[in-house]
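Chapter review: from sequence to fold.
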Amino acid sequence: MSWLQLKIDTTKAQAPVLEELLETLGAAAVLMEDSADQPLLEPPPGATPLWDATRVIGIFTVDSEMDAIIEFLEAQLGEQLPAHRVEVLEDKDWVRAWMDHYHPMRFGDRLWVVPSWTPPPQPDAVNLLLDPGLAFGTGTHPTTALCMEWLDSLDLQGKTVIDYGCGSGILAVAALLLGAKEAWCVDNDPQALTATRNNAEHNGVGERVHVFMPDDMPDMQADVIVANILAGPLAMLAPVMAAHSHASTHIALSGIIRPQVDELREVYGEWFDMDGLAIKEDWCRLSGTRRA
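The token string follows.
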């Protein structure tokens, strides 16, 4: 099977915007690479460094309407697309592109996400085995990284965890590998639930993962809740999160940007003390504790 790749030469500042737009358009993957041979120093744990001149590459199925995709991008940017080209990518090259792009990533003090084709940099660390797949969540997006770092900071031994909007299941699996007893995973996409099951089994924690569509989630209270979605759904779900919590439940919300923080803090403030704020590349994570 062949693919189409849209290569866009852009700036470090504009690259994350294009990445998000390409994902919105249904790109099977979005890659970034150096377009000016600029060396990068070793980044801090969990960071995603970018070059001043970055090439953003969107991978699309061969039947995609590339003219319409380019037109949409220009409408969203409010200007002509920077220098770009469309190329055919053979299936074997697409796999190689992922393998070249996706490397082990560290989150916090203990946790690593490691693709299957790469040996763990620290074999004695908590290593989560995860390959790029069909559902959101590989650790490369700032919101996922923020949640992973938060989980790494907690004492999860014997705790129950809810991962609301689980995507690939990366957060639930990470929590279990960090010592949690059980993870209850919710998503409105059946494909995400399948990915979560598969990734849990691949990491040897399949028996401790429970997956549900939102309407099927049982009445239960968790010790830890993490939700990496978007601000609108998070606001609407506040009563649901409260119902699934007990006194002292820890909660983290991500998928939000700075202008949305105060509103969400106010909404959740009815039940939670939301006093934690972390920021990565303009994305935010709010965290707090359920009041007694």
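Two observations follow directly from the output. Residues 190-202 form the longest helix (13 residues). DSSP finds nine helices and 14 strands in the chain.
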